[in-house]
Amino acid sequence: MTSSTPCSSMSNHTKERVTMTKVTLENFYSNLIAQHEEREMRQKKLEKVMEEEGLKDEEKRLRRSAHARKETEFLRLKRTRLGLEDFESLKVIGRGAFGEVRLVQKKDTGHVYAMKILRKADMLEKEQVGHIRAERDILVEADSLWVVKMFYSFQDKLNLYLIMEFLPGGDMMTLLMKKDTLTEEETQFYIAETVLAIDSIHQLGFIHRDIK
């Protein structure tokens, strides 16, 4: 006959290990449930958009197939285990409210990317976690010339890292700083491009709330 060891007789080290294991398991299954709910939400959003557009059955089938491929690619990216040690930082190319953007090079392939580094503490303090998740979803779902591509994402205790396509042309602010004033033709061109870019986001079911 054996007797179980009462919890009160456990060492502090054992109690800490038990607590850590419990939290790890809870987080693991919570993340699985959240991922499943997010996939279902994206699928429902796709079905709603297709109904609103009045697509034919064959067009719906093609759209669903493309969506399934994107979901598969998204899962592949999530399973890819990467960290800061896999990239060489070349220089800082931008700064924002939650962190900075660095030009980096992947060590094993030599490919160059833009690494967006977001401080978790700032996101939590300013209650922007939902917005950041929406941004990530757009980057994953989008297959458009108007939306920058995201290739990888990972995190550590302090930061969230988004590894994205590097676009060397810069942004509108940089252009205005260089040229000061745009011609009428240039203004028409960039406004037209902006409208097309915003429309592509609307087609995905998202609204841009920080246009400036």
TrEMBL record:
Listed cofactors: Mg(2+)
GO MF terms, alphabetically ordered: ATP binding; metal ion binding; protein serine/threonine kinase activity
EC number: 2.7.11.1
Record's keyword terms, sorted: ATP-binding, Cytoplasm, Kinase, Magnesium, Metal-binding, Nucleotide-binding, Phosphoprotein, Serine/threonine-protein kinase, Transferase
SMART domains documented for this protein: S_TKc
Reaction catalysed by this enzyme: L-threonyl-[protein] + ATP = O-phospho-L-threonyl-[protein] + ADP + H(+); L-seryl-[protein] + ATP = O-phospho-L-seryl-[protein] + ADP + H(+)
InterPro entries, per database record: Kinase-like_dom_sf, Prot_kinase_dom, Protein_kinase_ATP_BS, Ser_Thr_kinase_AGC
Annotated GO CC locations: cytoplasm
GO biological process, one term: intracellular signal transduction
Family: Belongs to the protein kinase superfamily. AGC Ser/Thr protein kinase family.
Protein name: non-specific serine/threonine protein kinase
Organism this protein belongs to: Neovison vison (American mink)
